[in-house]
Amino acid sequence: MLIPGRPLMMNSVTDEMNLLHHPPAHHLVMRDIGEEIDLEIGPGEDDPSFTSTPLVVSQEPTSSEEPEEQKALLLVSHTLSEDQDLTKLQQMKRKKKVVKKWREEWAETYKWAYVDMNEGTTRIFCSVCREYGRKHRRNPYGNEGSRNMQMSALEEHNNSLLHKEALRLQMASKDKSLPIVDRPIYVKSLMSKTAGSIVEAVFRRDPHDVEFIQSVQEVIHSLEPVLVKNSQYVHILERLLEPERMIVFRVPWVDDKGEPHVNRGFRVQFSQALGPCRGGLRFHPRMNLSIAKFLGFEQTLKNALSPYKLGGAGGGSDFDPKGKSDNEIMRFCQSFMDELYRYLGPDQDLPAEDMGVGPREMGYLFGQYRRLAGGHFQGNFTGPKIFWSGSSLRTEATGYGLVFFARLLLAEMNKELKGLRCAVSGSGKIAMHVIEKLLSCGAIPITVSDTKGYLLDEDGFDYVKFSVLRDIKAQQRSLRDYLKSYTRARYFEDAKPWNERCDIAFPCASQNEIEQTDALGLVNSGCRILIEGSNMPCRPQAIDILRKGKVLIAPAKSAGAGGVAVGELELNHEYNLMHWSAEDFESKLQEMIKQTYEKSIKEANSYGFPKDSPEALVHGGNISAFLNLAQAMIDQGCV
């Protein structure tokens, strides 16, 4: 016998049968584990209204002391009177009832679902997508049949794309150290159905790889006219978007106190169609497989845009080198290489530096690689101040190349870099070399930043001030210490430098550092050129704002080609950069930058993007890189 006002407990098969024959006259929504819900089941999957009906947000009763009938009425709509609700409920009741018992293993699923009325029928909606029924392929809780059928439908719902995203958000909310994604993935509008279907396929296959999907969307947006012109490239692009090899492994290590730790290592060898893989290793606590794939994809296109035959890769670990001793970093790097070394080699993969990986880390990594590989001394790691890399100039290549690219763009506008105010983010190797070269060109760099804020010197940095900055970074001190020497400067906590008055912006910190509000700040501050120093520094919404504001964007694929070029020269025995003067090195670097620029503009014009368009360089670079890769993939067959 059922007692009104108390939770319904299923203790036996007889109780369940009694409940089916004598259902209570009220509706319930969210209940605790062990309780049940009673749903009015509507027309079901065959109802044509499944795909076109509007959604109504339900509200739960706030007081447990209210009569049960009033609770049911409030669930239908809080705007209707009690008499109206009773009348409607009586009209909507169906003979068929489904009783489902809340179980421990179902609890997480139901937490992300809710019950609501839709055109006179009780439905179960997903809390993430606010959809029901066919939106999840099937009603996730089943409309009819045995409990086995309902469990099967529930299992299908648990495996669905939208439910997995809900669980990922839930797990992120439990662990504050994990990146919490508080916004849906931004989907660009595409003109062609073909391009849209490719993006949809990537999203279905890798729904949690936010950074990778963002990078793919940008490239496909550029390639739309290419796909329309030649449908053969559709299948090539589909193959290209799946990495050749993804390696995920455990990295155990012991700290100085003797306590064991474990991190996760990644290496994504994205494409070897043009040659052996080349790409950075990043050590950062937020590193994950999505970022490794995004870095590998960007590096693949960047290398394809260069004049050299190189594939692309990316990787690293969620290990944080900050605050670690040299011995701890050495032990971690050795453990990292214990697993990765078997996938490396001069003709297979060539790791390079990235965020959190400098000469010290590269030295430890190569030393362990050499020991494990049998003592072969032929080096295949690239980085500065390492005697097997062959060059002490490579560290400047990427930063100098960004400034040379900016100077090239200004020359096309009949302007020069001298006297222009430049906002720089980051304070790593690339950012510091950007500032150094800006000073030599007569520009006025005014900002640098770190993870806690940014430093502003309205008078601009000069060589003496730059020397102070370099010493601060070498000693791993805070940028705030700069204020002890120059009191007129200011440091802004938890802020970015994009609202400061500037002519050119050099984002050199990390991906997605420029949000919508930052883009508005850049446009309002008078910025006219943005040179990407880091990979994908702008969110898609920010890019839209910058383009509408007529800000010319130089993509990292083109502007950052300097590092790729010099890295290849290091490995070419016909060149010995140790015998080059600084002037020869810069001359060669400028020549490579110019070739990349001209190639991008040529392809942009070929596919209808005029030279003076703010997005010409982005689209032209993506198209040129893809065509090089596509031709190689066509020549090699379906492999």
Automatic annotation (TrEMBL):
- Molecular-function GO terms, alphabetical: glutamate dehydrogenase (NADP+) activity
SUPFAM superfamilies according to UniProt: Aminoacid dehydrogenase-like, N-terminal domain, NAD(P)-binding Rossmann-fold domains
Q: Which residue ranges run through the membrane?
A: none
Residue ranges, annotated region (Disordered): 40-67
Record keywords: Oxidoreductase
EC number(s) per entry: 1.4.1.4
Q: Does the keyword rRNA-binding apply?
A: no
Report if keyword Nuclease is assigned. Answer: no
Q: Which CDD domains match?
A: NAD_bind_2_Glu_DH
By sequence similarity, the record places it as follows: Belongs to the Glu/Leu/Phe/Val dehydrogenases family.
**What is a single cellular component term in the Gene Ontology annotation?**
cytosol
Q: What is a single Pfam family found in this protein's UniProt entry? A: ELFV_dehydrog
Q: Where is the Glutamate/phenylalanine/leucine/valine/L-tryptophan dehydrogenase C-terminal domain?
A: 391-637
Q: Which GO biological process annotations does it have?
A: glutamate biosynthetic process
Q: What's the protein name?
A: glutamate dehydrogenase (NADP(+))
